[in-house]
Amino acid sequence: MHEVRWCFHTTAMVTDYERTRDALARLVGCRPLEDLRDESPEIGRRGGMTWIGDNSIELGESIVPDGAVDKFVRRFGSHMSSIAVQVRDIDATVSFLESAGVRVASRIDDVIVFTDPRTTAGIVIEWYGGEAENDPRFGAPMPPPVADPVLDVRRMSFGGAVVTDPAAAAARLAELFATEVTFVDLDARPGTPQAGVSMGDMTLALYPVESPADSTRLWAHVYERPQTSNLGIQVVDLEIARTALAAAGVGLVRDEPDHLVVHPDETGGVILVVSDRLLPNDPRAD
To answer: 92, 128, 148, 277: least buried by Cβ within 10 Å?
Structure first.
């Protein structure tokens, strides 16, 4: 059967892998699980999986001119690029997706499939059916913790994406993930998600595409179309996090009562949303 087990990783493609890796280590205790070079044109990147809190983010730097990563970074700059989900049986997943009107854009190998974002609410999704040798969820050893990061990160709280219609996108993605819509709040204030979808172990948060001016004000980035957009992290205490970021001289895009948005210049391209709470009905809600 098709089954999404958990979020395999969020993904960011960046101009400088080491800069982003080291910035995230300093800020949120990011731990590299690998540092690999893949020179195939359909990937063409240096980097790989890293660990933050209780989940993984892939970081990649282009090493192949006109490769997939190079094309992305030239078009969008250093930024979030996709979301990956762990599935139990990739062949069953492909059959299910095709029956649901989803087009497979590329099948990298026996266990990795990317689908056409035009059939998945505008979001690039990787479906992974293997068991990564360096994944702690399959028994791999966890790298030692980073000493004294700026923020005391409890969990990776969500992956974020902007879409044209958050409620409709949530319904579509819950169907494809075979999970559930966790919340819909179309009256949510700007810069907060209007809907959420369970990925089994965390939430995919969905925001509306804003005007260029509002997008710049909210995110320091202009979103012209649906795409993955940010990474949410849960800290133990937001006020302590606010004080720590200020003391470390870390620039913010926004300082809201219930969350902070770290400027992507501070991370080498990853927009971090910092809060001390999970989104409504998150699968891990205490």
So the answer is: 148
Residues 6+ away with beta carbon under 8 Å from 160? 80, 193, 204, 205, 206, 207, 228, 229, 230, 231, 232, 271, 273
Handedness of CA 257, 191, 119, 10 (dihedral sign): negative
At residue 43, the pLDDT reads: 81
Are 274 and 152 spatial neighbours (Cβ–Cβ below 8 Å)?
no
> In whole angstroms, what is the distance from residue 61 CA to residue 59 CA?
7
Query: Residue 264 half-sphere exposure, CB side, CA atoms within 13 Å?
Result: 22
How many CA atoms are closer than 13 Å to the CA of 285, on its beta-carbon side?
A: 9
Q: Decide: pTM greater than 0.90.
A: yes
Nearest to 210 by CA among 196, 193, 197, 222: 222
Handedness of CA 58, 222, 163, 181 (dihedral sign): positive
Domains of the chain as residue ranges with CATH: 4-132 (3.10.180.10), 153-275 (3.10.180.10)
Tokens of 143: 């790298």
* Burial environment of residue 225 by CB neighbours within 10 A (0 to 12, 13 to 18, 19 or more): exposed
* HEC letters along 113-133: EEECHHHCCCCCEEEECCCCC
Strand-pairing partners, residue 113, are 107, 127
How large a percentage of the chain has pLDDT more than 90? 95
